[in-house]
Design the sequence.
């Protein structure tokens, strides 16, 4: 099937409860998890608790997935910004994954986004779908946000998707962007008392679908009954 259930979760808290995060992942059953602001020892623990494979090993971003990822590569965006890239094969089609962690300072974030669209990352001409997720910082304007909106398409779900700060969500700081033959079918911000205590970000879960890129030729219907196929 070409359906992919994804989650993005920034464990941005020194007191982040890994047990709560593991329970969240088990209950939501995502195929792929984008993690940010997470220590690598916590990634290993989450992988063991959820039965998912861990990918990363460098920096504060990581993937957890049911399927094996390839071409995993870590890139520094400077000034605390990071991007973890990988490829996923789904229904014999490839998806390019970008797990992003940006800072809140508008000037620095603008530089990070400019680097993110360099020729070796999102600026590369890639024929396959791109699924970009993570912590894009604040606010929603300035600091390179125009470049994100110009080059990528924000996932239609979960709508406004306010997930930060967790105790009183006002802003959609974490989100998914899409490019190429992929679309969002559904999505939501997951909230509970335990999750509001575990991190300053609430997790986002979304259902993605790879779309059909084939072109079909429409043959007009023959209305004249006297016309018959030629035999022989």
Sequence:
């Amino acid at each position: 099937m070409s359906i992919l259930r994804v989650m993005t979760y920034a464990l941005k808290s020194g007191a982040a409860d890994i047990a709560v995060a593991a329970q969240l992942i088990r209950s939501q059953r995502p195929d792929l998890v984008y993690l940010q602001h997470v220590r690598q020892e916590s990634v290993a623990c989450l992988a063991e608790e959820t039965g998912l494979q861990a990918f990363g090993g460098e920096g504060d971003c990581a993937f957890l997935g049911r399927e094996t990822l390839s071409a995993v590569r870590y890139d520094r965006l400077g000034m605390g910004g990071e991007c973890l890239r990988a490829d996923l094969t789904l229904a014999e089609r490839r998806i390019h994954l970008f797990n992003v962690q940006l800072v809140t300072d508008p000037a620095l974030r603008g530089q990070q986004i400019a680097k993110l669209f360099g020729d070796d990352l999102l600026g590369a001409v890639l024929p396959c779908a791109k699924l970009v997720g993570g912590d894009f910082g604040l606010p929603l304007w300035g600091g390179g946000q125009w470049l994100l909106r110009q080059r990528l398409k924000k996932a239609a779900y979960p709508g406004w998707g306010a997930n930060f700060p967790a105790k009183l969500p006002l802003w959609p700081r974490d989100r998914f962007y899409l490019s190429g033959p992929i679309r969002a079918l559904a999505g939501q911000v997951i909230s509970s008392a335990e999750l509001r205590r575990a991190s300053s970000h609430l997790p986002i879960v979304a259902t993605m679908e790879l779309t059909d890129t084939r072109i079909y030729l429409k043959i007009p219907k023959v209305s004249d009954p006297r016309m018959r196929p030629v035999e022989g």
Observations:
- The two ends are 41 Å apart (CA to CA).
- The mean pLDDT is 89.
